Amino acid sequence: MDTNQPAINDLSISIATENGTGSASANNVLFKAIFKMGVPCSSKNMFPSNIQGLPTWYQIRASAEGYMARKDAIDVMVMFNDATAAKDIYRVRDGGIIVYDDSTPLAANLKRDGVQYFGVPANKLIQKIVPASPLRTKQRNMVYVGVLAALFGIDMETIKAVLQDTFGKKPAVIESNLVCIEAGFNHVTEKGYSQSIARLQSIPNGNKGKIITEGNTACALGAIYGGASVVAWYPITPSSSLAEALEHYMPRLRKKDGKATYAIVQAEDEIAAAGMIAGAGWAGARAMTSTSGPGLSLMNETIGLAYFAEIPCVFFIIQRGGPSTGLPTRTQQADIQLMYYASHGDTRHIILIPHDMKSSFDFARRSFDVAERFQTPVFVMMDLDLGMNLWSSEPLKLDTAPFDRGNVLSAADLEQWEKQGKKFRRYFDYAGDGLTYRTIPGNPSRKAAYFTRGSGHDADARYSEDEKDYKDTLDRLRRKFETARDYVPKPIVDRHEGVKTGLVCFGSSYEAVREARDRLRASGLRINHLLLRALPLTEESRDFLAAHDVVYLVEQNRDAQMASIFKDEWPELAAKIVSVLVYNGLPVSTGEVVQQIKSHQANGRKGIEEWQETKRIASI
Amino acid sequence: MAGDKANRLNLTEKDYEGAASTMCRGCGHDAISASIMRAFFESSIDPRKVVKLSGIGCSSKTPAYFLGQSFGFNAVHGRMSAVATGANLANHTLIPVGVSGDGDTAAIGLGNFCHMMRRNVNITYVVENNGVYGLTKGQFSATADKGSVMKGGKINDIPALDLCELAIILGATYVARSFSGDRKQLAPLVQGAFAHKGSAILDVISPCVTFNNHEGSTKSMKYVKDHLDPIHDIDFIPSYENIEIDYQEGTDHAVTLHDGSRIVLHKLNGDYDPTNRMAALQMIHAAVAEGKFLTGLIYYDPNRVEFAEELNLGDTPLAELGQDMLQPPAEALDRINADFMK
Q1: Which residues of A touch B314 (CB under 8 A)?
Q2: CATH number for position A365
Q3: What sign has the CA pseudo-torsion A168, A173, A179, A180?
Q4: Does B154 touch chain A (CB under 8 A)?
Q5: Is B11 part of the contact surface with chain A (CB cutoff 8 Å)?
Q6: Is A17 in the same domain as A65?
Q7: Cα–Cα distance between A162 and A428 in angstroms, integer?
Q8: Where is the domain boundary, A430, A454, A484?
Q9: pTM for this one?
Q10: What ipTM was assigned to the predicted interfaces of this complex?
Q11: Which of B63, B89, B315 sits opposite A230 (nearest CB)?
Q12: Do residues A21 and A45 both lie within one domain?
């Protein structure tokens, strides 16, 4: 990069702090200020599974081109955590900048060549300007906000506006934060610090109409607008914030005449949460839970019950690093098969896969339609990156289409059926599509009741160990799954004729893959792109595989779980798939995708293997 | 066995029957099913308003054998309480009757059971307690008494878990123990449970005639009969019967239930107030120490509200709310979007 020509609105900042020190507020102010300037930006929070005292990194990316993925090269490292400083100095790229607290002199081992150091005596400053209180140390992080603002061109008016938006009702809090930010800002001016790697410039109306939210909130709102009425959940990172968003918004949005049109239960464990939504779905409510890998493991038995007894219910799965406790605060897509084949016995489940805030909202709303249409558990596959990081997005948009409640027979319907000489048989496949009719407990017709069970049953819901009944049921459930292919969201395909290389991704990988695609195209590789949005797979994915010689399938797990599902579905096309795997627990970066594909282009599968073995753990 | 007598809904006992039972001949569970049917009949409850729930085990099969006109849900092992909680929230206007066993409730499902009692979810929760796993052929359960002998001669040396004691501690609001063979006592207790809004637990000793009916077992038919200790005779007076009770001062105790029905306890066992929690626990302890099966309404709390009310649910069940009630207006989403732009 030409050091005399700063990059405009193309900047990545990594902020290293200790968790529990108030850095979340400081980082939020910084991020929102850049957003307010109209610069497209994204943030990634790499936090520990801990309350206080462990390292945390917050990465902000400003991208004039609107790319939201984590950037490989860190331009600026804010080194405010002594515990990680020795490593942090090497996380910044050559030619980059390190901001550190020079209240005490920089230790010799924290000096390196090829980067610019800017010191700010944050500790000393706050001693001077913040009245002594146990909370004083929490103000220290506000100082670097001022330093970065001065260095990169965020004006104080924007910062003040963000403080107003954030702490509007607490003028004292605004003031106490502002003095610290100003102290940092003024320090840069007084010292005459300057840099020429990047500048942030306001873009008039650049983010006009855009919102910032997290996927968990978007899912919660989608569920509320989708009519979710019974929610049972158990706290687990990174899914708790979804249920907590429900607890926040439900009382505001879902009351009639002072009464709740919802019930939220914090269950005693995930087994109970799953049981509750199975019971609620059976009794006619739109029922949901949210959980993460360990919770999903516990819910498996009940998911099998809901599958076999054909009960609608929705599971929001916010994936994190597994197996076991794994990395509770890091991201993965490693529970795909646990969802797809959840429970013992032959099962396959419908999974909706959002990739951004809008689809999180839309698919959350839609998941209840799918669950009731197919009378089965439906998964909404999220992950920590999508669920808990802030993403900018077009506004959430309400779909007022009628809810699809599926094949439900009222007492009047049953009467009508009787007149037509038609008998209600709970598990009978009237149309040959595997879908059946159900009645809801409380139905006043004497013909309505049936007995639900997870044990073997016949088409009339009677207990049966008969081999034909059993096989018929299994086959019909499979038929139902086949029918779902026409109903789930189709992939979004970006395809040009004559191109023989394809790229497939899903979920939170989308942003990195979109950018990787553009970069690969810019470097001369002609490549088509398919964004998968649901399981079961549909013909569009098959066509895409068939039309290309090589298809790169990007996923965030070690064992290529999604690729296995593709290969199982279409073994004749399996050889075309080349897996691009990222599984270090961090949000996918563009470089990790580009480098693997280039390695394969140059050296085939061996090239990718070598990359996995030798290349890198992406920097924070 | 069904009589021709009709109840207030003009239904006969036959209308409360279910499929033919597949229990062993002489199983206590069938007697309990008969008491449940009798209770529904006597209380003139519309079977279409009832949901039957169960877990897994012999006892959990029995809801298929009564109230064939009611919806039923035979769930997975130990999870009836969770499933019933969800069903109750979806439609709190239905009358839930849960049937479970000592393995289902006191072992695999203990955690979920505890929290259901804690929440005071409205249910009539019948445990058919025989101290043994029947379907898997005779292993001890968590309610097997210390010193009780298994069919093969193995002696249980871990103390039994007392579900009534536990339920009282956890916050259940109607706690009774009975014996499958005592329909005169059991049927009115079940009727009382139906009339009660909240968690009503009935721990019913129900000897397993196949795997736990031998010499040395403390849950054999003979042993149980020899050690029964009823604390009172019970009459159930439905809300619609406005009759004067022949009330014996000092020895009778009337309990008014949530729907206005009354249970009259004719005391056999000194002065006992079932609303006194500590007294209830003490009495259970004393009976256990003496090796007796205390039966009757052990504890009753008229004051706690049921879970659905705690959650501020309206009269219309959540399951019956349409899109107009469930989908907030678009303007509210516009406001949220505006918040997210800040």
Answers
A1: 256-257, 259-261
A2: 3.40.50.970
A3: negative
A4: no
A5: no
A6: yes
A7: 59
A8: A484
A9: 0.97
A10: 0.97
A11: B89
A12: yes
Q: What is the mean pLDDT of residues A525-534?
A: 98
**What residue numbers bound the domain in which A427 lies?**
411-484
| Residue of chain B minimizing CA distance to A447 | B69
Q: pLDDT tens digits, residue range B159-176?
A: 999 999 999 999 999 999
Whether chain A has a CB inside 8 Å of the CB on B21: the answer is: no
Tokens linked to B326: 């469930």
Specify whether A605 is located in the same domain as A512: yes
Read off the pLDDT band of B1 (50, 70, 90).
very low
Asked which of A192, A208, A224 is the last residue of a domain, the reply is A208
In chain B, residues with a C-beta closer than 8 Å to the C-beta of A279 are 53, 73, 75, 82-88, 90
**pLDDT at res. A137:** 82
SS in 3 state form for A559-620?
CCHHHHHHHHHCHHHHHHEEEEECCCCCCCEHHHHHHHHHHHHHHHHHHHHHHHHHHCCCCC
pLDDT at A412: 98
Asked if the structure places residue A335 within a domain, the reply is: yes
Q: What are phi and psi of A159, to 5 degrees?
A: -60, -45
Q: Residue B93's pLDDT band (boundaries 50, 70, 90)?
A: very high
Is residue A321 scored above 70 in pLDDT?
yes
| Residues of chain A contacting residue B64, judged by C-beta atoms under 8 Å apart | 451, 463
C-alpha distance from A119 to closest chain B C-alpha (Å): 31
CATH of the domain at A539: 3.40.50.920
Give tens-digit pLDDT for A29-78: 999 999 999 999 999 999 888 888 899 999 999 999 999 999 888 999 99
pLDDT at B340 over 80: yes
For residue range A447-463, what is the model confidence (pLDDT) as tens digits?
A: 999 999 999 999 999 99
Q: Reduced to 3 states, what is the DSSP secondary structure of residue A501? A: strand
CATH number at residue A165: 3.40.920.10
DSSP β-bridge partners for residue A78: A15, A99
Q: How many domains does chain A have?
A: 4
Q: A213 vs B318: CB contact, 8 Å cut-off?
A: no
Residue A523 tokens, joined: 């470097």
Answer yes or no: do A254 and B328 touch at CB < 8 A: yes
Residue A275 to residue B82, Cβ atoms within 8 A: yes
Same domain, A309 and A221: yes
Does A514 reside within a domain? yes
B13-310 is classed in which CATH architecture? 3-Layer(aba) Sandwich (3.40)
State whether residue B337 sits within 8 Å of chain A by CB: yes
> Is A213 within 8 Å of B340 when comparing Cβ atoms?
yes
Answer yes or no: do A235 and A183 share one domain.
no
Q: Does B49 sit within 8 Å of A260, measured CB to CB?
A: no
pLDDT given at position B3: 58
Cβ count within 10 A of residue A610: 12
Do A517 and A580 lie in a common domain? yes
A159 and A227 together in one domain = no
Nearest Cα of chain A lies from the Cα of B323 at a distance, in angstroms, of 7
Q: Is A389 exposed, middle or buried (0-12, 13-18, 19+ CB in 10 A)?
A: buried
Would you call B68 and A400 a contact, using CB atoms and an 8 Å cutoff?
no
Which helix (H) or strand (E) segment holds residue A505: the answer is strand A501-506
A311 and A236, same structural domain? yes
Residue B53, min C-alpha distance to chain A (Å): 9
Angle, nearest 10°, between helix axes A23-36 and A136-152?
30
Mean pLDDT over all residues of chain B? 94
A162 within some domain: yes
pLDDT tens readout for residues A562-575: 999 999 999 999 99
Residue A383, both tokens:
């992950």
Residue A399 lies in a domain: no
pLDDT digits (tens, 9 = 90+) for B308-327: 999 999 999 999 999 999 99
Give A530-544 pLDDT, tens digit per residue: 999 999 999 999 999
Distance CA A534, CA A557 (A): 18
Any idea what the Cα angle at residue A59 is, between residues A56 and A63, rounded to 5°? 175
